[in-house]
Design goal:
heterodimer, A: 4 helices, 74% helix, elongated, B: mainly alpha, Rna Polymerase Sigma Factor, Chain: A, Arc Repressor Mutant, subunit A, 2 domains, 11 helices, 0% strand
Chain lengths: 76, 197
């Protein structure tokens, strides 16, 4: 017997990366529609990725920006 | 005069090349913020990241003719950057033991957060938001290099699998497997920080 929740868990990363086939997406969505347990975990993963991306983003210092601009070839 | 014709075409060629060069440098500089954000998470310190980005731009501006216009300039710059990072003597790391992580599965972090807050419908997002920015950075930093590079390029830099494969000079299948495992390691690290055992 297929454990659909287990299958859904395996499909989560490729699902969120958009690399599943159309049929696989339909299969995952069908399960997610009827399974709030998996749906909650998918939503959480999506937010987690976003949250991590924001948390680890560090802007470049203005000093470095100036240094890089100074590397440009001078215009004659 | 017989000498004026070649001189004119030569000066036109020089002027065209100068314009192409200016265009290249401007385009590359526009991407510097994004290049830095990726660099910052590939190396351990802000100073190293700044040095690396500066060296990358020095090299890129020197070898700008090797760039094919119309291709992904950001990926081209990151390829230079990762090569320089390896040249700087970044050690090759042994593949870490990850079998317990593979067994944990992708729902691991959510399950752990939920188990730590058994009071009914506790919102796991809120538990996550209690994590400080520093602890998230630490959780990422503690992911072994090989896995972290892929996470940084795909999840932070938003590169495609194909671009990440090209930048790191590894097969696309390796990008996918390292990404898969790397994210699990990251989630394990986050779980350890959010819910200390």
């Amino acid at each position: 017997m297929i454990d659909w929740c287990e299958k859904c868990e395996e499909m989560m990363q490729p699902f969120l990366d958009g690399t599943l086939s159309v049929d696989e997406v339909a299969e995952a969505e069908k399960h997610l529609d009827g399974c709030s347990w998996c749906a909650k975990r998918y939503r959480f993963e999506e937010r987690l990725r976003h949250y991590v991306r924001i948390a680890v983003s560090e802007p470049m210092s203005p000093a470095l920006k100036e240094k890089l601009a100074a590397l440009r070839t001078p215009l004659n | 005069m017989s000498e004026s014709a070649p001189t004119t075409s030569e000066s036109r060629r020089i002027a065209e090349e100068a314009r192409a060069r200016v265009r290249f440098e401007e385009e590359a500089l526009e991407l510097s913020e994004q290049v830095y954000r990726v660099a910052r998470r590939l190396v351990g310190s802000r100073e190293d990241a700044e040095d690396l980005v500066q060296q990358t731009y020095e090299r890129a501006f020197r070898s700008w003719r090797q760039y094919t216009p119309g291709t992904n300039l950001r990926a081209w710059l990151l390829r230079i950057l990762t090569n320089l990072n390896i040249d700087r003597g970044r050690r090759q790391q042994r593949t870490p033991q990850t079998s317990s992580i593979d067994e944990a599965g992708d729902y691991f972090l959510y399950n752990r957060l939920e188990a730590a807050n058994p009071d009914g419908n506790s919102d796991s997002d809120r538990v996550l938001e209690r994590l400080s920015q520093d602890s998230i950075v630490d959780a990422l930093t503690e992911v072994p290099h090989d896995f972290r590079d892929v996470i940084v390029l795909v999840d932070i830099g938003e590169f495609s699998y194909a671009d990440a494969a090209q930048i790191l000079d590894i097969p696309i299948g390796t990008v996918m497997s390292r990404l898969h495992r790397g994210r699990r390691i990251l989630k394990k690290n986050l779980a350890d920080k959010a819910v200390p055992a």
